[in-house]
Amino acid sequence: MRIACTDFDLAATLESGQVFGFEKLADGRFEGTLAGHRVRLAQSGDQLHVENGKGPFSEKDVRDYFDLDRDLKPLFGILESEKPLAASLGAFRGLRLIRQDPWQALACFILSSNNNVKRIQHIFRNLEAHYSRFPSAADVARTHERTLRQLGLGYRAPFLSRTGTFLASNPFYLDAMRSCAYDEARSRALAFPGIGPKVADCVLLYGFHRLDAFPVDVWILRAMRKHYFGGRRVSESRVHAYGRKRWGALAGYVQQYLFHGSRNGVIY
DNA sequence: AGCCAGGATGCGC
DNA sequence: GCGCATCATGGC
Length: 268
Hints:
The chain is α+β, with helices and mostly antiparallel strands. The protein is 53% helix and 9% strand.
């Protein structure tokens, strides 16, 4: 399948720490699961190539997943007007926010706390291998904690176990969060074990495509302190409130360019 | 060897 | 509200 795409950077999108299930192959293609199907992805210019097996799999699935029908010009207008962001735009123009499955985003970002991307990817692959797919909440619910530990989760095993158990017996809980206002959805995310302020915003941003969410991790905190607070050691909650107010409905997109740019040395 | 990783939690203050 | 120790694990 070939899909026309403008203002799209596949590699930046898949390597910017928002999704952990794609592996870069030796030839530069990416392999992972999209809309329930194993795919291999490659980009050449304004074309996205998708190889997949048989199944109910459409171009629309891909366009939705990669947010390809969004006009990024309003975002680019913001990024161009601020020095640190313009640098990231120059390097990663076309980085887009993926629409992930809410449960998968929630599970992955429980694993992400005090962890590094390489190891999160490793745990993700362990989970896929153990269950022959990414586990559902029900899968996790009937798995013993020690098994999760053996898959590499460490001390986060009980967090995921308890979350899976709750969602297996409340199967529409995440669906209901879709229609909540930001504050309500965030406080519900915060109520899960192992989910604090940063991961809650990741769940809203990546799992529910709430673009007004603004996750503040160590990279965002450093970059924001330096470029927007004159180097002052302001708190994460202040940075969070500031980012959301300054960039509003596109705060999450701005955050993604700031994060990826900072992590790759484009912003310093 | 020791520090860090897309932090969260529980504590004392 | 803030600061701090602790939490598995492995990459670097």
